Amino acid sequence: MRKILSILAVLLAAAGCSGNKAKLTTGVPERVKPSKNVILMISDGTSTSLLATARWYKRYMTGDLELPLAVDPYICGLVQSRLSNSIIPDSAPAMSGYTTGVPSQQGNISIYPEAQPNQDVVPVDASRTYQPAATVLEAARVLKKKATGVVSTVVFPHATPAATAAHGARRNRYHDLGRQMANQNLDVMFGGGNNILDDDMREAIRESGATLLENDVEGFRSFDGDKLWAVFNEDYMEFEIDRDDSAEPSLSEMTAKAIGILDKDPDGFFLMVEGSKVDYGAHSKDPVEAITEFIEFDNAIKVAVDFAKKNGNTTVVVLTDHGNSGITLGDAHYRNYSAKGVDSMFVGIKDCRISSAKMTKTLQNCREDEIPALFKEKAGMELKPYELAAVKACMTRTEGNYMEVANSWNLQNVICGIFTRRTHIGFTSGNHTGEDVYLAIYNPRGERPAGIITNTQLNDYICKELGFPSREVLVELTDKLFVSHLQVFDGCELEVVPGEDYPTLFVRKDGRQLRIPAYHSECYFSETEGDERSVRTPCPVVYMQENGQFYLDKSLAELFK
């Protein structure tokens, strides 16, 4: 009997292996065959339970109660998205952990963090504090000569896109981060934030050979070149539910356009796509925003995976940076839930065709007697007397910080409450949460992690997919391209001159001078007065205000030898 059972076990194992191409292992596979192209997709601020909420909403709205999400077949595990000193992440260091393999602190954009020995949850190298950490995008571009791109629906130097292609200690320094991105020689950059662009950034973008389009959706759609920056709206782009197709493309359209451009490069490409505003909806506790934004992100996943399947040499990695709001399919008031159908969950928002953010602006531009009719027209909702009174009481109260909408008394908060009461979708807060986040991967060879992995392990997997033996290549690249000017130019005369937009480092020795503008990838060398020539660096020079140091390509020292 023991022999029969042993033979049966072997046969079952063999049958399982032959019938499933995927090579799932606990953790990250030790050996991974590289893919020519890697697409990293981030749905910002997505609690895993939002997947079920969005899936059932989509089924309810289409009438197909078997309809899956595009992401469903590729879910393979969970990721611990911890920081260096916290188990509940902020977007900037959470994304930095994925792109650099270095867990860091609140507000950090792809740098090594300060050590906090009494609070750190991972080892921190205090000798590297504030040093920029090379990202997978930079490694793909510099070491593999791949085309690179970033797609987002918020301002282009926002936390997630910035952590892919820039460095800094504070995520809100948009102009410093944006200047780096403009000088990063990106082949594609799509997102919002025209009000951040200045003439210096525009010049850097054009000098890189890219076409720059601002609020030009027709030009975007007709573009047939190799490098494109397309920036829409002065601030962030519209929520998908509010979007005017004649003014802005959707996330899925931008994903398809980015892939079409990047795929022209014979060396392959690395692309980061962010479903940015799922996070906004979760912070506001707006079920309509959160659900519809995630569904559009899911549409973008389908675009990426369809390309990957046809291409045969592309890996698509999908996950979120952190949970947000603790959204639940079922709240404390959903009594006798096991006896109720899907209609009871979503019927109250099935006719809602507006985000709470857009409804806020709409109401503030109307008369009080128009409020009930607008709610009926835009959201399909009859206001109750106490709801109407609440709206009228705070018509002039707004919250400028999208992350604080649910935490203060303001008109958008009231509107979100009205939307939520029409459902049985619950929220624990309007804040980030510390759960392990979903991981989905399409790999043409079925080589993907499984089980629960860390953000550092995920970075290691991405590195392997790009053709590097491990994430140690990022450390080596860091120590070539982001070295303190005090070390690189030891023995030279050094002067940091402040500027209105950015500081400049002057290095002098034996009559020679090197002028290095912060956040640029071009500096200027002269051996005699008046003969200044341009010298390019592989990545933009990073100036860290916190320690007053420039971090730059150490090979610049050769100019003074």
Overview of the molecule:
This protein is an alpha/beta fold. It folds into 3 domains: 37-306 and 323-327 and 448-481, Alkaline Phosphatase, subunit A, CATH 3.40.720; 347-422, no CATH class; 483-560, Copper Amine Oxidase, Chain A, domain 1 (2-Layer Sandwich), CATH 3.30.457. It is 34% helix and 19% strand. The chain is built from 19 helices and 23 strands. The strands form 5 sheets. The chain has an 11-stranded mixed β-sheet with strand order 1-15-3-14-9-2-8-4-5-7-6, sandwiched between helices. It is globular, with a radius of gyration of 25 Å.
Helix content: 25-40%
What structural class results from the helix and strand content? alpha/beta
Write out the strand line-up for the largest beta sheet, numbering strands in chain order: 1-15-3-14-9-2-8-4-5-7-6
Q: What gyration radius follows from the Cα positions, in whole Å?
A: 25 Å
**Distance, first to last CA:** 79 Å
Q: Any guess at the CATH architecture of the largest domain?
A: 3-Layer(aba) Sandwich
Oligomer: single chain
Figure out the total of helices: 19
What is the mean predicted local confidence, pLDDT? Answer: 94
The general outline is globular
CATH class category label of the largest domain: Alpha Beta
The overall strand count is: 23
SSE topology sketch:
Elements: H1 2-19, E1 23-26, E2 37-43, H2 49-62, E3 75-80, H3 91-100, H4 136-144, E4 147-155, H5 159-165, H6 174-182, E5 188-192, H7 199-207, E6 211-214, H8 217-222, E7 228-231, H9 251-262, E8 269-275, H10 278-284, H11 287-311, E9 314-319, E10 323-324, E11 328-329, H12 343-346, H13 356-363, H14 371-379, H15 385-393, H16 411-421, E12 425-426, E13 432-433, E14 437-442, E15 447-454, H17 455-465, H18 472-481, E16 483-484, H19 485-488, E17 493-497, E18 504-509, E19 512-517, E20 522-526, E21 533-536, E22 542-544, E23 549-552
Parallel strand pairs: 1-15, 2-8, 2-9, 3-15, 4-5, 4-8, 5-7, 6-7
Antiparallel strand pairs: 3-14, 9-14, 10-13, 11-12, 16-23, 17-18, 18-19, 19-20, 20-21, 22-23
Helix pairs in contact: 2-11, 3-5, 3-17, 9-11, 10-11, 13-16
